[in-house]
Design brief:
This protein has 14 helices and 19 strands. It is an alpha/beta fold. The strands form 4 sheets. Strands 7-8-10-9-13-17-14-15 form an 8-stranded mixed β-sheet, sandwiched between helices. Strands 1-6-5-2-4-3 form a 6-stranded mixed β-sheet, with helices on both faces. Strands 11-12-16 form a 3-stranded mixed β-sheet, covered by helices on one side.
């Protein structure tokens, strides 16, 4: 199934099949006469008398070849409400054979032109499906032809919406790939193709990582026959050489837990353990596609955590890129090891304005927040508020969790500078964040988003139909647009 959205300045032809029109919240259609034939207007008016007007969308089957879709609009809708309304429309038209609909923008009255942009954006986001490995392909196409002369989004807004959709879909595609396909070697190759979008991509392989001293990251991947990588993606949209915004992602392409082996039940879900990196990649693609007027860098650590004769053992001690030594008490606390090296490298090499990292880091954050909020940990109040506010606006919500020196003590090791888990118990997500904070060496403003409960949805959400969500791409894009872009 694919969705095509086409814009036209032509007026709606009353004989057009499958029409989409907007009304007020009471389904008053008196102002829609000019878009309907006399018989259609009379027919719909009669049916509305016995219809459930609490619904947001009512579909009328005029005949075997024509539907008229009425959408009620309440006053003072937030942009997220508008997008959810568009997503609901997709659920009502996603059936049957190839379908063509004519949406008349003039029926919106004098709504701001961004209304329609957000409405169609929600519809498009909801339409995503990952069917790559299905033998029977769904070749259906739904075409939305936008007619009329009012309320259409500008060319710039259309570009911005398209860029965020492509970035989100790219992130979802990456997360949806099985581990035997998207292993670190393949992942690194795919990222090299982003050069065509205008990103500067550098791939650090094992030889380069050893030379740099990234033994925390390399230790996680040493049990796999696949390589381990650090990949940087730079976007220079601001020519004044200002400090970049930095985004860092955990890219564990498959996580067995290593010798601290995970239970077999649900281990198949561990193909999603690279979702933090996918968000960073999707965000960077989006920034490049819409020619964002900022400087930004995305950094992802790509590894596979496997069991073998060469795998890392509980009790091992490794030296990180920062110079700090880490005692590995549990090989399933591996994402923080990848991020430790990536964070210090990002801070030292790029000297960014801030660093935001994303990771499916702990099961504890799911126990705490479920699948409604990502956990936010930060050393900076201003950055935290900006992320929180951006999340509220796009409905990719975050909740700030505590950091404190007393938690920090729980990560002290007797044998090294730091240990990778808290063996005392409790505060699993906070102690993981405390661990990461130790690798922010120069007090750069930093935020950590634990997205373990948000990266994948078995049941679907408002703007996704189940599976990979691409959580964080829209959130961080909003953060950039509203606070840092010129």
């Amino acid at each position: 199934m694919s969705i095509n959205i086409n814009y036209s300045s032509k007026a709606l032809n009353k004989t057009s099949a499958n029409v989409i029109l907007f009304s007020n919240e009471k389904f008053n259609i008196s102002n829609l006469k000019k878009f309907l034939s006399v018989n259609e207007y009379s027919y719909i008016s009669d049916l509305l008398k016995t219809s459930d007007l609490k619904k947001k969308i009512i579909v009328f089957e005029v005949n075997s070849k024509k539907k008229i879709v009425l959408i009620s609009i309440k006053k003072n809708l937030k942009t997220s409400d508008i997008e959810n309304l568009g997503a609901e429309l997709y659920g009502r038209i996603n059936y049957g054979k190839n379908s063509e609909y004519f949406l008349n923008s003039d029926s919106l009255g004098n709504k701001h032109d961004i209304f329609l942009g957000h409405f169609l954006h929600g519809l498009k986001l909801k339409s995503y499906e990952f069917k790559k490995y299905k033998s029977k392909k769904d070749t259906r196409v739904i075409s939305i032809n936008v007619t009329g002369t009012k309320n259409k989004p500008s060319a710039k807004d259309q570009l911005n919406f398209k860029a965020i959709e492509e970035g989100t879909f790219y992130a979802r595609d990456l997360v949806s790939e099985p581990g035997n396909v998207l292993h670190p070697d393949e992942y690194a190759k795919r990222l090299s193709t982003l050069k065509k979008d205008g990103l500067k991509v550098n791939i650090y392989d094992e030889k380069k990582l050893k030379k740099l001293g990234m033994h925390a990251l390399l230790g996680v991947g040493q049990g796999s026959i696949r390589g381990s990588y650090l990949v940087t993606m730079e976007w220079n949209g601001n020519k004044n050489n200002s400090k970049p915004l930095a985004f860092v992602g955990k890219g564990v392409c498959f996580d067995t837990g290593g010798y601290s082996l995970k239970p077999a039940r649900f281990m198949e879900d561990m193909t999603y353990d690279m979702a933090g990196s996918a968000t960073v990649v999707g965000l960077m693609k989006n920034l490049a596609l819409r020619k964002a007027k900022i400087n930004a860098v995305g950094v992802v650590g790509l590894v596979e955590n496997m069991v073998s004769g060469n795998a890392q053992r509980p009790g091992d001690i490794v030296k990180s890129y920062s110079g700090k030594t880490i005692e590995i008490l549990n090989t399933d606390a591996e994402g923080r090891l990848v991020l430790a090296d990536a964070l210090t490298f990002t801070e030292k090499k790029f000297k960014p304005k801030f660093i935001v990292d994303l990771a499916t880091l702990t099961g504890a954050i799911i126990v705490c927040l479920g699948s409604e909020y990502a956990g936010l940990f930060s050393n900076d109040d201003k950055l935290s508020k900006e992320i929180f506010d951006a999340g509220e606006k796009v409905e990719e919500k975050v909740w700030r969790m505590p950091l404190h020196k007393n938690y920090d003590k729980l990560m002290n090791s007797k044998n090294a500078d730091v240990q990778n888990i808290n063996y005392v118990g409790g505060a699993g997500s906070t102690t993981a964040a405390q661990f990461l904070q130790r690798f922010i060496i120069n007090k750069t403003p930093w935020a950590h988003l634990d997205i373990a409960g948000m990266a994948f949805s078995k049941y679907g959400g408002a703007l996704n139909s189940g599976g990979a969500t691409g959580f964080g791409v829209r959130l961080l894009n909003k953060l950039v647009m509203e606070n840092y872009e010129q």
